[in-house]
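Q: I'm writing up a methods section and want to include an example of the input and output format. Could you take the sequence below and give the corresponding predicted structure tokens, formatted cleanly so I can copy it straight into the document?
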Amino acid sequence: MLEVLLCSVLTILPDYLYRRYRQGKRLGHEITFFSVWYELRWGITACLMLTVALITVIFYYHPSTTTATLYYRTVPIVPEINGRVSEVHVEFSAPVKKGEVIFKLDSAKQEAAMETARRKIAEVDAALLAAQADVLKTEGQIQEAKGSYQQASDELDTKRDLQKRNPGMVPQRDIEKLEVLLTARQGALDSATAAKQSATIRVTALLPAEKASAQAALAEAQVDLDRTIIRAGVDGRVEQFTLRPGDVVNPVMRSAGILIPDGAGRRALAAGFGQIEAHVIKVGMVAEATCISKPWTIIPMVVTGEQDYIAAGQFRGGEQLVEAQQVQVPGTILAFLEPIYQGGLDGVTPGSSCVVNAYTSHHDQIAAKETGAFKGLVLHAVDAVGVVHAMLLRVQALLLPIKTLVLSGH
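A: Here is the clean output for your methods example:
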């Protein structure tokens, strides 16, 4: 309607003025309700053509969309293990801080595993004390074996010396017996030394390794026990949390609830524009938005990003070929917009539906030296007609509560 009124000022009004003051025709006489088409046919035809052209220019260079939403990501509350809920620490809807306990699972099995690991460590510590006593015992056995070996060696040396001085004084049989005894005493000494080495290895290597394994088992049991305590990973708010003691949760099939992080959906607005606007939507474009959850408010925004792919064209590889006719609805160009002023989205509920207008600016192109006067005039006109879309957005902002509350039929 605004486009028609604007175009009529440039077409129908001059046509009427020409016929009224140049041809002398008057309303109600020569120009009547029945003759208005014939008398003003040039102005009406030009008005319709100019209106269509104006609407095309406005909607192409200053795109608008009603599919704009403050999307936000939720964090599922999922335990790492299966289990039955034993305690719930939050209500149906409640704020939580990072690290705060949300709920606990039954941990009897994990506590038993931890107790077993502690007992194993205590057992290894006791075995370590016994092994240290064995080391002391083997040291005594070594001293005893050394003394016996030295005694046998001294006696053998004495008998050999006597035999050298006075042959036949010491029977050869006694010397052979002492030599055999000395060999036996050497074996006992070697056995005691080996026993000490074995006990020392048990104290310094084997038992510490067993203790380290037991401590690792205790740490693993502690990790399993910690998995039964589900904590908030980020600051946020738990919503629609209906979990109660006795419920069974499964990390694959059944989550416990969702956590909405603080600030989710309050940074950027995602808007889907028609595919024909692919070459118009650019980063840095100025835009305006009005949202249902914050009526009668125009939010100045700027385009900060553009998705290079259209979601409607994606497919997953499988055993069947893709049929192009399955894409029933053309996809949109997804653009991300952020408020120009800090706090621009305050009061807008995340997930709210919004209406967005983006405005093309050819200022740099107009200011360029190579741009001619006619082209610059056309670009000025293209930028200027954006005010029509701005007026339409404000009309939509005024009528949006009425349309939603009164005319929606709810």
